[in-house]
């Protein structure tokens, strides 16, 4: 049947090509708005923090001159909530821009957003624009299977592009940073097992490692925005799936080709019992589950004494100021993944480290604006373009390597040397807004000092720390979230299910950890409640999408299928136009 369908489509297309699809072949794109200097005006929506003025930014001027674009900026903040709200208001009101250039961890579009906007005709398909004008983007899509899968919707269109940043240390977010100066003072080894960690935390609590004669030490703390407390500690018992964009726990794992979840398993229960036992002893700060990032940073920077013994976070600058006058930021080193009582030692994998969509052209953009914008992005995909857009002008934001300079990965040739943030001027680059092609090879070629405790050597410190976690992810259990597109007909349902499940699991786990629920007597009710908030349906829908991804039909993985589907769409549109023209 499928071969007959293809032949029929090709036959009809050939006939229409001879007859002519329509008499006008109109371009539906709006007429270009031009500035007085001949540049095409592109209304562009982007986040900008207090240090960033996109109107006066040198990268804006370079892109404007190079690609004949006059940017008309609509900006938000780096505060994710208000930024997303303003983005959604612009879409709902119809007063949206020609171009969205967003930041993944601020206000990036989800898969569901992209599909919805694509089906509505708001998002302009990019694949032909890329093929005709963007060889560097095309090369990246052709050479990186995951990028291609996450960029291509089930109907074969590319409605938006994500950033690709091979952030090695971001790929393993479930780290524990521990005060090694306190370990040394108390003559304790770096903990490697769940019980060795208990011993260390008890000593931090009771043996006055900060030396001020007060019992004010906090053995372990985190915050609600960045914390990976459950994820890290759970690794000694069960594989903890990482959430998107380092956003805490995920829900889905794989058991062979069966989509499953660990949060209702006996192993997960044992992990929660262990975490509860630490909390019950006062070894985990109660504020870990309520305080925000500012409160955690205030504790880490307490001027009277070093307070924090350990913190399960992506990196230590989240809880202590780098370059602290007393050098406290140099006291923290990464503990390895813990080995639990049954010998398990897992660390969650977050790959790729950015999963939202950030570059989207809309149907408000003229053809000239579309071409200029995609050519600009294509330039950013080059090494030169990335250097300038992410770091700013050469000689100010970065320099070429000098004699004796060593790359982050000391086995590769260094490529660039970034000016430390404290030495670089403000408003120098587009930075996070331009991180579209930061491959592992590119990131690892950055010149970084060998002193991992110097502020300029911080990236090497994170690189070396992450080596402890590499290999502790279980790729057999890893669910490829970004590659598995949700069936548009159930996207609203699956989004609602996930929201409800996230809330239920989070509240249930917190209740077991703090002791407001007894894990021995209340666990069965918790598991039963998961089905009450839709776990079975959620797994069923994700299984269907995953099966489609594996089979290839859901993502239209072969070029032939993509071409045929697009051809059929074009044929139907042409037939409609011909019939309309003949009836008038």
UniProtKB/TrEMBL annotation:
Q: Which UniProt keywords apply?
A: Signal
Highest taxon above the source species: Bacteria
Q: InterPro entries in the record, alphabetically?
A: Bact_solute-bd_prot1
Presence of keyword Repeat: no
Q: Where is the signal peptide?
A: 1-19
Name of the protein this chain belongs to? Extracellular solute-binding protein
């Amino acid at each position: 049947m499928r071969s007959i369908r293809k032949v029929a489509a090709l036959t009809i297309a050939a006939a229409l090509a001879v007859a002519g699809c329509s008499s006008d072949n109109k371009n539906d794109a709006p007429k270009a708005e031009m500035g007085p200097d001949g540049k095409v005006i592109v209304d562009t929506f982007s986040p900008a923090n207090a240090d960033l003025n996109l109107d006066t930014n040198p990268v804006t001027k370079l892109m404007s001159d190079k690609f004949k674009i006059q940017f008309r900026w609509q900006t938000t903040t780096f505060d994710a909530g208000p930024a997303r709200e303003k983005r959604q208001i612009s879409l709902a009101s119809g007063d949206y821009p020609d171009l969205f250039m967003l930041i993944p961890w601020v206000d990036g579009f989800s898969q569901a957003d992209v599909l919805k906007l694509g089906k509505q005709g708001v998002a302009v398909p990019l694949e032909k624009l890329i093929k005709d004008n963007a060889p560097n983007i095309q090369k990246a899509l052709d050479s990186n299977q995951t990028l291609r899968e996450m960029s291509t919707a089930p109907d074969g269109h590319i409605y938006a592009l994500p950033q690709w940043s091979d952030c090695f240390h971001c790929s393993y977010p479930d780290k524990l940073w521990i005060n090694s100066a306190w370990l040394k003072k108390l003559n304790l080894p770096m903990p490697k097992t769940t019980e060795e960690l208990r011993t260390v935390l008890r000593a931090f609590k009771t043996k006055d490692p900060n030396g001020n004669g007060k019992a004010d030490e906090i053995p372990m703390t985190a915050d609600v925005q960045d914390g990976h407390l459950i994820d890290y500690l759970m690794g000694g018992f069960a594989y903890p799936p990482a959430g998107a964009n380092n956003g805490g726990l995920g829900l889905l794992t794989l058991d062979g080709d069966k989509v499953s979840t660990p949060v209702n398993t006996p192993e997960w229960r044992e992990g929660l019992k262990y975490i509860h036992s630490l909390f019950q002893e006062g070894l985990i700060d109660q504020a870990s589950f309520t305080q925000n990032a500012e409160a955690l940073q205030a504790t880490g920077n307490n001027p009277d004494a070093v307070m924090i013994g350990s913190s399960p976070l992506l990196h230590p600058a989240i809880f202590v100021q780098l370059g602290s006058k007393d050098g406290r930021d140099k006291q923290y080193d990464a503990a390895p993944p813990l080995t639990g009582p049954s010998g398990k030692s897992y660390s969650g994998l977050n790959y790729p480290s950015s999963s939202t969509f950030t570059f989207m052209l809309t149907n408000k953009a003229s053809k000239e604006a579309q071409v200029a914008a995609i050519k600009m992005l294509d330039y950013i995909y080059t090494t030169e373009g990335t250097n300038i857009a992410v770091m700013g002008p050469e000689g100010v934001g970065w320099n070429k390597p000098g004699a004796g300079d060593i790359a982050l990965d000391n086995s590769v040739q260094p490529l660039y040397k970034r000016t430390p943030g404290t030495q670089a001027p403000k408003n120098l680059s587009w930075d996070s807004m331009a991180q579209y092609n930061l491959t592992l090879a590119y990131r690892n070629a950055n010149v970084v000092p060998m002193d991992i405790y110097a502020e300029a050597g911080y990236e090497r410190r994170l690189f070396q720390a992450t080596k402890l976690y590499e290999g502790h992810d279980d790729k057999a259990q890893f669910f490829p979230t970004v590659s598995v597109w949700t069936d548009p007909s159930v996207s609203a349902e699956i989004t609602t299910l996930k929201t409800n499940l996230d809330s239920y699991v989070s509240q249930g786990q917190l209740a077991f950890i703090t002791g407001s629920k007894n894990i021995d007597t209340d666990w069965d009710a918790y598991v039963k409640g998961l089905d009450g908030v839709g776990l079975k349906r959620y797994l069923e829908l994700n299984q269907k999408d995953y099966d489609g991804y594996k089979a290839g039909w859901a993502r239209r993985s072969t070029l032939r299928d993509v071409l045929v589907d697009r051809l059929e769409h074009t044929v139907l549109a042409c037939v409609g136009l011909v019939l309309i023209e003949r009836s008038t």
